[in-house]
Amino acid sequence: MNLVKTSIALSMVAAFSAPVMANDEINFYGKANVGIQIADEGDGAFSEVKSNASRLGAAGGLKVDDSLSVVYKVEVQIDMDGESDDNVTARNQYVGLKGNFGEVLLGKNDSVMKQSSSKLDIFNDYEADLKVLWKGENRVDESITYKSPKFNNFQLGVTYATESDADQDAGISTALTWGDQKLSKSKYYAAIAADSEMNGYDAVRFTAGAKFGDLKLGAMVHTQENVDTGEELDGFFVSAAYKINDFTIKGQVQTGEVDGGDENTGVSGGVDYALAKNATIFAFYTAFDFDTNGEKDYFATGIEYKF
Among residues 241, 247, 266, 248, which one has the least CA distance to residue 256? Predict the structure, then answer.
């Protein structure tokens, strides 16, 4: 069954990459990220081979005229370790319009809060992903996302999560960003984002990034509240990545303190070695300290190949 599902996914993406009308822009891409990991989650250490959000996708669009284009993305996650029976799952999948008015996308997509801080989460897709301690890392089904044109490096984004049926409430995610989150076109980046009733939570997050030569720094302040229970959590995040020739040394700290309850902390350190522009060997160590659930430790090394 795994082979059948994987074959279907590959066929689907290959179909999108086939030659079509001359006006069409189609990009076929993917990432294979697999490592061997030693984990201790409180019941003793064990080893595993783990796929870290490996994926296949196709993205592009059709230029209608000089001021309007149709754009799309179809992306699936492939669990290359073979652990799950359902080894093909949906990631961002949408179609929309892009023009002088900005961009409107319909389908399944990351909320603008998640997008506003994802590039500064330098252990994203690993054990220390922001979503372990914080809410707000939502990939939203049946959503509408709008992003304005950039004005003096400012951009407004809104994600509207539809009710789906009469028994559910709609959710809204908003973000105002300034600069380039990847810190490749600017030395500084800042964002403020807020969620309202997104998957049962209200949240506010401030994000900032800066680049000084080969050093990249990131910081976040986050607060959230469970809509049903009223339970609140506050946390902060700092990260640093320093490039030395083909090596990148990385570290980050994240906290999540429940009001009147648990204090949880995650600390990670790692190093990447670039074999080539699109191939990297990585290693990392992550330690979590949970007041209620004890300590969890992870050490991993593996390889990532992008195409």
Answer: 266
Amino acid 260: pLDDT:
80
In the numeric block, which tokens belong to residue 176? 């105002």
- Burial label, 12 (beta-carbon count in 10 A; 0-12, 13-18, 19+): middle
pLDDT (0 to 100) of residue 240: 98
Distance CA 75, CA 84 (A): 18
Angle formed at CA 248 by CA 247 and CA 250, multiple of 5 degrees: 145
Structure-block tokens of residue 33? 């990220």
Taking residues 279-290, report their average pLDDT: 97
Non-local (6+) Cβ contacts of 4 within 8 A are none
What residues are paired with 144 via a beta bridge?
106, 160
Q: Which of 266, 253, 192, 245 is nearest to 223 (CA)?
A: 192
pLDDT, residue 225, reads 97
Q: What is the pLDDT of residues 201-254, one digit of tens each?
A: 999 999 999 999 999 999 999 999 999 999 999 999 999 999 999 999 999 999
